[in-house]
Amino acid sequence: MLLPEFKNSSYLLRALTHRSYLNEHPEAIEDNERLEFLGDAVLDCLSGAFLYNRYPEMREGQLTRMRSALVRTEQLAAFAAELGVGPLIRLGRGEEEAGGRERAPLLCAAFEAIVGAYYLDSGFEAVRRFVEPLFATLANADLDSKSYLQEVAQAEFGQTPRYHTAAAVGPDHQKEFTVEVLIGGEVYGVGAGPNKQAAAQAAARAALHKLGKASPLRDAPEDS
After folding, report:
1. Over 70: is that where the pLDDT of 197 sits?
2. CA atoms within 13 A on the CB side of 33
3. Is residue 222 part of a domain?
């Protein structure tokens, strides 16, 4: 997956400019915070429309949970990492030395800013074509199991699930990861997959079944 092509490259440059860079380079015109605000709004609309059209029988509560999972900080940061955004961000020296290129909030903000910039550059339909393949990859992997398990665990145990990589076997090009999910120190589910994210989703689904909760994407009950 590649970043989209911009007709006006100055939009992309601004989207990749963190405020720490602006503080150290007065010649830079603007940081990416306004574009981040715009991109957040565009992503909310696009993710809602994507889920509404993809799951025509799903009720509002389930759609809301799924949208939250699609646009949460960690997931948008993962999209940014997949697109190779980290090395492109213009950072101040202090933020660079603090590992800013790998911090989820910073990567998430950059991704939202890129979406906002691309909206200004090429319009809503172009942004839809850019982000929907990213959404679809997650939807195919039952993206919301982890988010749903977190809701259940906090409501029933007052705990946040913790994920632990128990094993990673096989050659680098064909590894299989095993992940355990723990609630209050007890293992509630174990899952395997070709990457940590897929294994964690499988572990979350196993935990939901152990707790007697339906998987929110596959077999969730109708909202009352």
Report:
1. yes
2. 8
3. no
Rounded distance between C-alpha atoms, residue 187 and residue 183, angstroms: 7
pLDDT at 16 over 50: yes
The gap from C-alpha 110 to its chain's centroid, in whole angstroms, comes to 12
Residue 97 belongs to domain spanning: 9-139
CA distance 87 to 140: 29
Residue matched to tokens 């509560």: 61
pTM of the model: 0.67
Domain count, the chain: 2
Burial of 70 per CB tally in 10 Å (0-12, 13-18, 19+): buried
Active site residues: 40, 112
Q: Tally Cβ neighbours within 10 Å of residue 127.
A: 24
DSSP 223: P
Token duo for residue 169 = 């076997």
